[in-house]
Design goal:
The complex is a heterodimer.
Chain A: H1 5-34, H2 51-56, H3 60-92, E1 97-98, E2 101-102, H4 108-116, H5 123-133, H6 143-150, H7 161-189, H8 193-201, H9 206-217, H10 219-233, H11 237-243, H12 257-266, H13 271-296
Antiparallel strand pairs in A: 1-2
Helix pairs in contact in A: 3-7, 3-10, 3-12, 4-7, 5-11, 7-10, 10-13, 12-13
Chain B: H1 2-12, H2 20-61, H3 66-69, H4 83-90, H5 94-125, H6 131-140, H7 146-160, H8 167-170, H9 175-199, H10 203-211, H11 216-227, H12 229-244, H13 248-253, H14 265-279, H15 282-302, H16 304-316
Helix pairs in contact in B: 1-2, 2-15, 4-15, 5-9, 5-12, 5-14, 6-9, 9-12, 10-11, 12-16, 14-15
Chain lengths: 303, 317
């Protein structure tokens, strides 16, 4: 290498590193510090030890928020992955086999185009969209047909506390499925045809082909999907903030940790408590990541 | 066992008598495929409808009047006029929000790609003391939820506002402040992705360029960056969409006095949604939604392949 290497390396790293440390790393480090204070953002902070963390366990909204995050953590990956697997299997392998070559079903390009589109839209925009679509009277795009065709409702998708969290889940699934259809499709295409042909010669049905061939060979991709959706389940901020009544209501029925963190700091000026909840969220995320890695560790199938 | 099935086969394919043991699975398989395929078709069509119907309903409502919007859900508007779009654009400031989003994302994505690729390049292809440490420092950013940093970040940006001279340009409610934050939070993934990409580029071409007397900087901008084009495009699309759709950071950071004029589209749409209730201008809300969704639809329809590749790039590695 020519001389001047170090000057070059330093000149290329300086700006990104300064920006990163200043806006990302330093705030992250600070959060652990602020979490131990009663800071309100104005007066000088006083260290209060673990008081913020003790307070969390008596905070009904915090407990509800954690419960909702855990609900999403279980339901969001399960439902999204199931639907996406089914749809992508139909798109890729579900078609007829013509002289041994399996083709996707008719219109699979169109379906892939449509399914993925919600992924391109901002969650905030989807929130406003569904606020209108799920209106609690027959003028809502959902309640209208529900009432007219099935005689149900009108359902208070967002106003009924027992339904509202499922609505949030439904909208999250609605947006996510297309992404995973494309992801799984890419994985399925890379599975060699001869494995399917061999299975077919052995007399395997489509259903057993799905469970015995596609699913095991797609395991890595599904694992990635699970982690992604798990991380998404710990967020959900924008949707809850925009879609639900009272930004997490009715009466805290849809609130999640992210919204409580936001509310504590920006509405109640409790910077210390908000940071403590941020720390709690961090450890929950970490626990999820560690658990996923432990559970899903297994031999890699090379093909 | 054989005789029963050979009859069946000869009825359907008389010219090609095949061994019976193969015929039985083939037949049942065909029936099974038909059932499965039609079931699959229904499922696919239903999901497509679930995606399309809400969008069409929204576009339609932009042409309706207030009473029509609160009437039967799935009736067509009585006549098509574009008044609501005009009101959404000017009175509800969609034009301003759109402009802000475009300016902010243009600068922040450019900055992210410039600084991200520079950092990724030296980390991937130069050996120096501390290389691994800095690399993992960037990667660590992927492990933390942004909500952990939210409170300190808010005060960090707020404090920037008190600086002399540059303060008003970098503090809360400033576009440049948000741009810098976007760049900083996009760096971990960009560096992670591009470093892996730069590592795969062949050494021979880089060595040839050095022999020809190219400087390190010239080598990067003229040789390596063009060679990494496909990776750069993927991650650029990823960053454009991520930053365009960002909601949390603008809501937290674009606030304070006079900040309304600098809010971005996602924020603006959410505002209009709350205001539509007070001002009773529901068609304008739907027009605003349409104005926010349609450009994305058009861009997506044109660049579908690249966008899907860009967004799934991270998951497929």
């Amino acid at each position: 290498m020519r001389h001047g290497k170090y000057r070059f390396v330093a000149s290329f790293l300086a700006v990104p590193l300064v920006l990163y440390v200043f806006y990302v790393l330093w705030p992250y480090a600070q959060a652990f510090n602020i979490a131990l204070t009663n800071w309100n953002g104005f007066a000088p902070p006083v260290y209060v030890g673990f008081a913020n963390f003790q307070r969390m366990f008596h905070d009904q909204l915090f407990i509800k928020a954690v419960e909702h995050n855990l609900f999403l953590l279980l339901a969001l990956p399960l439902i999204t992955v199931t639907i996406a697997l089914f749809l992508s299997f139909m798109l890729n392998v579900g078609g007829r086999s013509r002289s041994g070559v399996r083709t996707g079903v008719w219109g699979s390009k169109f379906y892939r185009l449509v399914f993925f589109f919600p992924q391109v839209l901002a969650v905030a925009i989807i929130g406003v969209l569904f606020q209108q679509i799920l209106r609690p009277d027959t003028s809502g795009a959902f309640n209208g047909p529900l009432h007219a065709l099935l005689g149900i409702g009108p359902v208070g998708f967002l106003t009924n506390p027992t339904v509202a969290m499922w609505t949030v889940l439904g909208v999250l699934v609605w947006q996510a499925v297309g992404f995973y259809v494309v992801l799984f499709s890419a994985g399925m295409v890379s599975i060699p045809q001869d494995i399917y042909e061999a299975a077919e010669l052995d007399g395997a049905s489509r259903v057993s082909m799905f469970f015995r061939v596609t699913l095991p060979l797609l395991f890595d991709t599904i694992q990635v999907a699970w982690v992604y959706l798990g991380i998404a389940a710990f967020d959900a901020f924008a949707l809850v903030q925009v879609l639900t009544v009272e930004q997490g209501g009715p009466d805290g029925a849809t609130t999640v940790l992210a919204n409580e963190i936001y509310r504590s700091n920006f509405v109640y000026s409790r910077a210390g408590y908000a940071s403590a909840m941020g720390v709690a969220l961090f450890f929950l995320t970490l626990a999820f990541a560690a658990l996923t890695i432990r559970i899903t560790r297994r031999e890699r199938i090379e093909f | 066992m054989t005789t029963i099935h050979t009859d069946d086969v000869s009825a359907t394919t008389p010219s090609a008598p095949r061994p019976a043991s193969h015929a039985a699975p083939a037949r049942s398989d065909r029936r099974q495929v038909n059932v499965l395929a039609s079931l699959g078709h229904v499922a696919l069509a239903v999901w497509a409808l679930l995606v399309i119907a809400p969008l069409i309903w929204t576009f339609m409502a932009a042409f309706k009047t207030n009473p029509e919007i609160f009437g039967d859900a799935w009736t067509l508007p009585s006549h098509f006029n574009f008044d609501a779009f005009g009101r959404a654009w000017s009175r509800a400031h969609i034009g301003t929000y759109m402009f802000n989003s475009v300016v902010i994302v243009a600068f922040s994505t450019f900055g992210t790609m410039l600084f991200g690729s520079m950092a990724a390049y030296v980390l991937a292809r130069y050996q120096f003391w501390g290389n691994r440490f800095i690399y993992y420092l960037f990667i660590a950013g992927l492990a933390f939820p942004v909500f952990l940093a939210l409170v300190p970040l808010f005060f960090q940006v707020k404090n920037m506002g008190t600086l002399p001279v540059v303060g008003p340009y970098l503090g809360l409610g400033s576009r440049a402040g948000l741009i810098l934050v976007y760049i900083a939070y996009s760096l971990p993934f960009t560096v992670f992705f591009l470093a892996a990409f730069f590592k795969t580029l062949p050494n021979s071409i880089a060595e040839a360029a050095i022999v020809d007397g190219a400087s390190h900087t010239r080598l990067f901008f003229r040789v390596m960056l063009p060679m990494a084009r496909s990776g750069i495009i993927s991650i650029t699309i990823f960053n454009i969409l991520g930053q365009w759709n960002q909601y949390l950071l603008p809501v937290a950071l674009i606030q304070g006095e006079g900040a309304e004029q600098r809010q971005v589209l996602t924020q603006g749409i959410a505002n209009i949604s709350t205001q539509a209730g007070y001002q009773a201008d529901w068609p304008a809300l739907f027009a605003a939604l349409t104005l926010a969704i349609l450009p994305m639809l058009i861009v997506y329809a044109i660049f579908q392949r690249q966008i899907q590749a860009g967004l799934t790039a991270g998951a497929l590695k």
